[in-house]
Write a structure and sequence with these properties.
61% of the residues lie in helices and 0% in strands. It is mostly helical.
Length: 359
């Protein structure tokens, strides 16, 4: 099964020439801007949205109604949006304690996580309604994918009444667990002597980043790796070359209709990070057009993804929406070339990223 951990960043081992001196001087500034301008706000926003989600779930459990269920679903959608932006920073604190997989176990091609969630609902496992105990269970039972099924999967409409209090209690525990993880990651990024200090202060004694090359390479790697993830894993999971090759139920967040919204948020996060870092300012003057081109294409990608609405199976059946998905794929491919080949060449980096492996 393919997991996000299958994406191995190997750029630091493939640096064949030095980052230009002018940019090397700015490496720490570039990384600090990235942290202050994007990473910390993104994870703080996720924590805020997750807190609202937890409150909404508890209110639903206390006073079940269609209105409270709608509010909980709205809070879930907002949390997915916040996570889809923040998740592009898939290293550092989010990698500790399996938080990345616990936050979102996907893809789940063999439905392992789904079966565990369904079993918990069927058996009414009391330990799964305690956020602290839930945190020690399978990663497939405790993140956004699990909560999506609780709120949108088979039997979810019962949450509007009092017929299934266990389902709501389990959902509230998942929300609480997500809130806890989001808070832990946000706090970790804000520690003055934590991971952010290591990334922003490369040097010979630094155990993770020995020089500015490696620190900036980590940043550039976010764009290359995440574009590959969006296009080759998330989009291609459901969008086939022809309609008979489509797999709508393999789409991320298909039950909640957040598939293309999450893809848009992924690219929106990349654009916000690129703008915050001012990475383009480190380019030679005759190559700074790349920065504007990257920004324009990311914005176009966001706009294209957001223009595809409704259930993903209906979008796949609509020729106009299929054209938009094709266009979205083309944009991400163009960005991969622009960033992964041309921008890295301007910075004197020969970047080698592993391809997606797995079966």
């Amino acid at each position: 099964m393919l997991k996000r951990s299958a994406l191995v960043l190997v750029v630091p081992l493939a640096l064949l020439c030095a980052f230009p001196a002018s940019a090397a001087v700015k490496a720490s500034e570039i990384i600090q801007r990235s942290i202050d301008g994007f990473v910390r706000p993104a994870y703080a926003s996720l924590h805020d949205q997750a807190r609202t989600l937890t409150v909404s779930m508890r209110e639903l459990c206390a006073s079940p109604s269609q209105g409270e269920l709608d509010a909980a679903r709205t809070a879930f959608d907002a949390t997915v949006d916040a996570w889809s932006s923040a998740e592009i920073i898939a290293f550092g604190p989010i990698k500790e304690d399996n938080r990345l997989e616990r936050m979102l176990f996907w893809p789940d091609r063999k439905s392992i996580g789904l079966k565990q969630v369904q079993a918990a609902l069927a058996d009414k496992d009391p330990t799964a309604t305690d956020p602290a105990r839930l945190a020690g269970k399978s990663v497939g039972m405790q993140g956004l994918g699990a909560l999506e099924f609780v709120l949108y999967g088979d039997g979810a409409d019962a949450l509007a009444g009092k017929a299934d209090p266990y389902r709501c209690a389990y959902g509230a525990a998942i929300a609480g667990n997500i809130e806890t993880m989001a808070g832990e990651v946000s706090d970790a990024w804000n520690k003055p002597d934590g991971f952010s200090a290591l990334w922003a202060n490369p040097g010979p004694q630094n155990p993770l980043y020995r020089d500015g090359n490696e620190a900036v390479t980590e940043l550039v790697g976010v764009f290359i790796k995440e574009l590959e993830m969006v296009r080759d894993v998330r989009l291609k999971a459901f969008f086939g070359g022809k309609p008979d090759a489509d797999k709508p139920k393999q789409a991320i967040y298909w039950r909640s209709r957040n598939t293309t919204k999450s893809l848009a948020a992924n690219l929106s996060g990349m654009d916000a990070l690129f703008q915050a870092s001012k990475l383009g300012d480190a380019l030679p003057s005759d190559a700074r057009w790349m920065a504007e081109s990257i920004h324009i294409q990311l914005v176009n990608g966001v706009t294209t993804a957001k223009s595809i609405s409704g259930p993903i199976d209906e979008a796949l059946a609509d020729p106009a929406s299929r054209d938009k998905l094709d266009h979205f794929a083309l944009i991400t491919s163009s960005l991969s070339t622009l960033i992964g080949t041309r921008l890295t060449a301007e910075f004197g980096l020969t970047a080698g990223f592993s391809s997606l492996d797995g079966d």
